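Training component of the fellowship. As part of building independent skills, the fellow (R.M.) carried out the full modelling exercise for a liganded target. The chosen ligand was iron/sulfur cluster. The inputs are recorded below so that the supervisory panel can assess the work.
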Amino acid sequence: MYSKILILRFPKTEAEKPIVCYLAKDYDLTFNILNAAVLPRKEGIMVLELSGTKKDFKEGVKYLRSQGVQVQNASQEVKRIKKKCTHCGSCTAVCPTGALAVQRPEMLVDFNQKKCSVCELCLTACPSRAMEARPTNKAFF
Amino acid sequence: MTEHKINKTYQQINARIRSGEAVVVTAEEIIDIVKNEGPVEAARRVDVVTTGTFAPMCSSGAFINFGHTVPTTKASKVWLNNVSAYAGVAAVDCYIGVTEPCEDDPLNKVYPGEFNYGGGHVIHDLVAGKKIHLKAEAYGTDCYPNRNIEKEVTLRKLPNAVLCNPRNAYQNYNCAVNLINKTVYTYMGTLKPNAANANYCSAGQLSPLFNDPYYKTIGLGTRIFLGGAQGYVTWHGTQHKPGAKRTKRGIPLTPAGTLWVMGDLKKMSPRWLVGASLQGYGCSMSVGLGIPIPILNEEIVNYTAVSDEELFTQIVDYGHDYPNGISKSYGKVSYAELKSGYIKFRGEEVQTVPLSSIVRAREVAEILKGWILKGDFLIGEPQFTLPS
Ligand code: SF4
Ligand code: SF4
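Fellow's submitted model of the complex:
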């Protein structure tokens, strides 16, 4: 059993489609809506806890993304411990979003948290263990 | 020596350092100086060029003497923070190597392994002033009856601790790609399938041995920056291979020279000896190392003026070839191309990934320059230079 709290951001046009219902119907996932502000013809946001097998979970998230929904892991965020980073660049081999990228010509490694999808690949790819996943402690209610 | 217009001795250069008159620049700064003023003028004006590098260097470790206990011990097995150290040296001496993982590490059983703590981390913790748990086992002798000891040690209280790295500062290294269709985890970092990234590990134009390719000023007794303190080159490193193919300027096209270096661990700093965990591969330690190159004549200054455009390495496949002992090059790339972020490989743009920190390499060269300018650091004249 796999379970995570996600923040979904719906683009304007998708807000009226019952996308979330398909998660249960087609992907065998259960969900628990923790907070939602989804208004027709406006950008919507929803916080939900999604549970199922890891495979179904992955497929479900893939489906959401294919529908133009931005999916963010709400219970975790990835941060860099600045003091530990040696600016070696190893992490840029695995970072899929370019959140970690080499600034040229200085060859400084920049971390842009806004671009981070919390995939956590850098956590074990960083030789100095400078990347860290932490609970966000966001209040939803 | 008569063929040179400028001839300076180590003694003359050191006299200038002592009197605070020495002109010291980094291996990056010298490039334009030689370009603008020519080698003869540059050699007349500049006394020392400083280099630097900071990267994982697996062949590193420290000799530690941990002092006697009552009753006395002749340790045959030693662990520091549960990392095994080689104890076949003498009664209370051991050697902790940076690639040794801690005893209960799952290694690659959970693939790819994380290798969170090993010998390099022990050395880092020691220089950071942390308490280290030492455990030793012995078989007991008449003169050394104790069979077991456990104690907390700190670097300050250890009688001796000497960093002794048998192979550091590789002169050039491969550019790694992976030509099979699954991700591989290597000492050259994570390599995605079908050459999706190309990893390289050299400080390029700042790298010590690229700036003195024939080791004309480097040998036993060369004083260097090592782990944040002064250290020495004591021998050529293991796998030193000066016969590698070279460009006209003497730059080797494949891994070539290496250094054996030593220094007092007690004087070193945690910023420059950093434990490294190489996913799927093992533990290591990133070492900060820099060499000052005395400008004895215009030939030497010409070597130090080498730039990333003139430094090349080979593309090697770490998916299939390397593990099978096949040495095959898939082409030559310059460090300027590698540093640009992309290389052209088989007609496609491939992302390049550095493993060696240029930011820190530059910092080493700057610190070394500062030491020499202040008169704190004299150039060590080698007893003999490395085999070339
Ligand atoms: S968590 Fe993923 S996206 Fe975020 S910085 Fe790390 S590798 Fe990049
Ligand atoms: S791998 Fe780690 S130490 Fe290296 S640049 Fe990335 S975050 Fe910094």
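The panel noted the following from the submitted structure. The mean pLDDT of chain B is 97. The first strand of chain B starts at residue 24 and ends at 26.
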